[in-house]
Amino acid sequence: MNKLGRGQRDKLQQFMLITGASEKVAFQALKASDWQFEGAFDLFYSHPQPRSAADTRHIEELYNRYKDPYVDMIMADGISLLCNDIQVDPQDIVMLVVSWHMKAATMCEFSKKEFIGGLQAMGVDSLDKFRERIPFLRSELRDEQKFREIYDFAFGWAKEKGQKSLALDTAIGMWQLLFAEKHWPLVDHWCEFLQARHNKAISRDTWSQLLEFARTVDPALSNYDPDGAWPYLIDEFTEYLNENGIIEKGKLSEWNYKS
Amino acid sequence: MAMSQRSTIDFNQGWQFMQNGITKLKNILEGTPETQFSSEEHIMLYTTIYNMCTQKPPHDYSQQLYDKYKESFQEYITSTVLPSLKEKHDEFMLRELVKRWQNHKVMVRWLSRFFCYLDRYFIARRSLPALQEVGLTCFRNLVYQDANGQVRDAVISLIDQEREGEQIDRALLKNVLDIFVEIGMGLMDCYENDFEDAMLRDTAAYYSRKASNWIVDDSCPDYMMKAESCLKREKERVSHYLHSSSETKLLEKVQHELLFVYATQLLEKEHSGCHALLRDDKVDDLSRMYRLFSKIPRGLDPVANIFKQHVTAEGTALVKQAEDAVSSKKVDKKDVIGLQEQIFVRKVIELHDKFMAYVNDCFLNHTLFHKALKDAFEVFCNKGVAGSSSAELLATFCDNILKKGGSEKLSDEAIEETLEKVVKLLAYISDKDLFAEFYRKKLARRLLFDKSANDDHERSILTKLKQQCGGQFTSKMEGMVTDLTLARENQTHFEEYLAHNSNASPGIDLTVTVLTTGFWPSYKSFDLNLPSEMVKCVEVFREFYQTKTKHRKLTWIYSLGTCNINGKFESKAIELVVTTYQAAALLLFNASDKLSYHEIMAQLNLSDEDVVRLLHSLSCAKYKILNKEPSTKTISPTDVFEFNGKFTDKMRRIKIPLPPVDEKKKVIEDVDKDRRYAIDASIVRIMKSRKVLGYQQLVMECVEQLGRMFKPDVKAIKKRIEDLITRDYLERDKDNPNLFKYLA
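Output (structure tokens, whole complex):
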């Protein structure tokens, strides 16, 4: 430990500041990832460190603050309170990221296990730390890989328990939210199309393939392969775009383009 | 010269002796009076050579004799043969040449006999050409070499004259051309290079000129006849004087100039080309066209194409004709397949017969034309007429043949033949499963309402369908036919049961037909409120059936039943043959005189659709058993009905038909549903065996697997794939969304 170079010592300090980890843990993480921050963060967050009894006790206290009086779960009221405490709007997309860390099964409720596990995963055991962590959580959406995971997670989380598909309204809401973060020019047309033509629940396959579509196909559909294995709903969407003059001669009509 | 002692022969002396012999030979050849060689003279000449060659050196004169042998020819040719040739031209020259060549051959033959000993040892020892060869080579080098050009031109000129119709000396030409062949001494190069090439070029030019005139002036059939006769004559030419090896090349040249070059123009000639010939049924000309065009490379492709277009056009015209005829009919009969559609199917059968005959006769069963016919029929046979698909039309056509009182009145043989042809047409229809469903529905009606005219025909068509489409296609239908046989047996047992159980008494004569659900089309069973008279029947039968088997559930389909009911009208009693529904309605009037629409509906517990239909049949159709207020032509929910006591008819027994509900929509729905299952099953089957497969591949294999029954829509397949993903049968590969994996 004493043999650390200047640069490494700086990194160590920074790491501890951001993650709230102890010096020992921070050192281990950084060493294991060859003193690269990216890798060290990944390592740190994917392997929740054994917590001292104090840490867990704090988190449990927090849980008790929010838990519902009649059920051993945090329900809607508790969540409102939490959001208030951490100064985040309940509709804010960062709550989705929080839920993802918690591996929450359904929206608008957290089980004890989910809450505790989630806070540990985020490296948070107090409201202050939670507030501090918010910017970082927000930044995770900009990571390509994490966004995909969060997006895929959102389907299972947003749908009704016991249902295989996601209700259309909820899906549209989620898409609006998600694609506000990661811009997709066609999101409004997609939602309009669904309401006009489909009016049924969304399957998981369609949900996950849509992200692929948004990522790989250019908004003017120039590289769209109609004979490909895209879900039929997406095929119909492209037909809809062509029929309604939104895509003309392979170009997105100017008056429709939303950047 | 003394022979007993071998004294050395002096060269000059010996040669002089030989020279005399040679001179004698020349005289013979020239026709100068001479005696023939005696065998003694022959032996002497031979022996002289022998001796001169076997003398001891320096008197072995083999080399000199060999040279002298050659010089003999050279001298003769130069002094006699060449001059005689040079002074003649054309045909005369040819004759002279032939004569000289024959002579030369004789000379070579004789001289090589005399000098034969040289052939034995000398030439082999020195690796020299044999005597025969030497002799012929002299002629070739001295005569042929210079003359062949002239000869060739003369021959070709004669050939062209013959082509123009003049008589020529064929034997002469044969002899001349034999020279070309023989002078090659085992190889054909002289014939080919010095004669054949030029002859072929000339032939090509000749026919090219002819063709360019004919194509403008002549109609297609006339041109073809000329072409055919030219080919015939050229073939004869070969047998008359050309070498047999020229045949293929010669005919190919003629075919090229006459047919290949002008193929398109010929076929597309405005009023006499392929289209016109087909239109006007010119069978002979078409046969000729086939014969000629089959000879040129890919010559038949455009013909087959025009044939296909023609058949497609004819077929499509039939479709349009039928459409027009149907649409000009009265609107209210729209949903019933009528006469026009029947006629349409008949005409399609006739069209098929006609063009199949073409394929067999004119086009000699060639696969290209079979395919063209098939493709054409597939195009228009899949077009429906007036909203009815071709599958439905065919099924109705069969129904009309097979049912009693059908519109087709044919002999047994004619029926068999027609059924055979209908089954053949089925091969062209892509929605075979739709046909099967319609057929099954109609078969059910025929069997249950005893409308089948002939059991043998019913079985016969099932056999034909089985042969064409496989056992799975007909298994349900066969089950249906068998069910009826079993049902009759069952009825016998029921009657025995009734006889032995006096307490089991239905009160009325009851016949029950028990059907195996899986075989028969699905019927909606409504909970008809049975008239009390019938309730007991159902009970009694149920008890009887329990004695036969406890493991089966009986579901009563009242919509299929018939009832004979006695109507006691004022003037006389008449027996009415009606359906169970109608009977139930009529029996209500035993208890009430007047009943409103709603009362009837409530008491019967049927749907509006059924009630309207049955009341219509009883009050607004041919036989007015019930009076309706108001007496309009249609049923409305505010109508009131009463028993028409005044009804009468000259017959004692009348049948009051209840027109069936339009099955079309339901059939199509059922088939669509079955298709979804079939696609699912196919996808699962494919993925189970392949484990991992790309999307395109999967779709392709699915289409192929299902092709025997129907042409699956690619969109439908895609939807089923997604459904199977949702049901966890398949998943997309994580890295490649175009790849699917089977989930065990």
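The interface with chain A takes residues 694-696, 715, 718-719, 721-722, 725-726, 732, 737-738, 740 of chain B (CB under 8 Å).
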